[in-house]
Amino acid sequence: MNSQYPGYGSEGGPPPYPGAQGGYPPQGGYPPQGYPGPYQQPGYPQQSGGYPQPGYPQPGGYPPQQGGYGPPQGGMGMPFMPRMDHGQADVHVTTNDDPKDDDVAGFGSSFSSKAIRHAFIRKVYLILTLQLSFTLGMVALFTLHHDVKLFVQRHQYIYWASYGVFLVTYITLMCCGSVRRKHPWNLILLTLFTAAFTYMVAMISSFYNTYIVLLAVGLTAGICLLLTLFAVQTKYDFTGCGMFLCVASLVVVLFGIVALIIGMFTPIPILQLVYAGLIALLFSMYLVYDTQQIVGGRKHEISAEEHIYGAIVLYIDIMQIFLALLQLVGSSDN
User: Fold this and answer.
1) Partners of 300 in beta bridges
2) Sign of CA dihedral 173, 174, 175, 180
3) In Å, how far are 121, 212, 214, 253 from 326, measured between CA atoms?
4) What are the backbone angles phi and psi of residue 302, rounded to the nearest 5°?
């Protein structure tokens, strides 16, 4: 027995390598059989499937690109502000170009994902319907009721107060995902956001004749319906065009700033008409872009947990189209 390596053969010498009979004895502090797989460390809970728990962004998703609203016009112009929604919500990138290939994940997995997506779409358009109904009712009240029209036109400080509420709630909902997904704070902020933006839209509408407002509402409804059907039925995928929309937004913003500066010295009505037309065109493209991300089945799609986000972006797109058309129709009438 070798005194340097006691217990390892009568001939002495170093212990055998791993794999030889006997192997190394277990070292102090380690369990004889090792840690249970797969590689679970002490003090950390085992994750199912290796992915984060619900509520965290899933790996592999690319956020949509940033866009932008134009600057507000002088006086009681359209309430534009830079878009902060894109890049804040969870957006997934589908791994298969063909939605039918989702069946390879397992029997019933495709049906389950479609059911979740359909429930998400119903929530988004239900919230959007309630928002548009409330806004349409307030626009009708501010336009048709003479006393209300005079009141809101004389007390324009309420407009700026509502603009402040709109900014605070909009930034909170778009930048704070935890607040946007937390009930009931998300519904409370969404209600305040809708009420503030509705007051601004209704007050702007009160400066136009009734038939002008009705014509703008009809044009907006027709355009948005056609664009939504096009976004759902077309084979072209516009969810990857976020960078182009970002560039287009910057161009519109710069044009609006130049038009505002020129208008301070020499009013040129044609510049305001061109600016309103560019706004209507820009948000028409945004409506197609956002609709395809909400409906899903494309390369980029919004997470099914973001129904508040989906309703807000569609509502903003539709309202900006309405305000741009209102200015176009009203200017042509004058």
Assistant:
1) 93
2) positive
3) 29, 7, 9, 19
4) -75, 145
The 3-state DSSP class for residue 198 equals helix
CA distances from 299 to 65, 99, 118, 237, 294 (A): 14, 10, 17, 7, 12
**Segment (H or E) for 301:** strand 300-302
Q: Is the preceding omega at residue 38 within 30 degrees of 0, hence cis?
A: yes
Cα–Cα distance, 281 to 272 (Å, whole number): 14
Place of tokens 């930034």: 171
Is residue 319 within 8 A of residue 131, CB to CB? The reply is: no
pLDDT in tens, the chain (334 residues): 444 545 444 445 555 544 444 555 555 554 444 444 444 444 444 444 444 444 333 333 333 333 333 333 333 445 555 455 544 566 655 544 444 444 444 444 455 578 888 899 999 999 999 999 999 999 999 999 999 999 999 998 999 999 999 999 999 998 888 888 888 889 999 999 999 999 999 999 999 999 999 999 999 999 999 999 999 998 888 888 888 999 999 999 999 899 889 888 888 888 889 999 999 999 999 999 999 999 887 787 888 888 899 999 999 999 999 999 999 998 766 5
Question: In sequence order, which residues have a C-beta less than 8 Å from that of residue 314 and are 6 or more positions away?
Answer: 124, 128, 287, 290, 291, 294
* Residue 37, SS3 per DSSP: coil
Task: Indicate whether this model's pTM tops 0.85.
Answer: no
Alpha-carbon separation of residue 65 from 102, 230, 241 (angstroms): 26, 22, 8
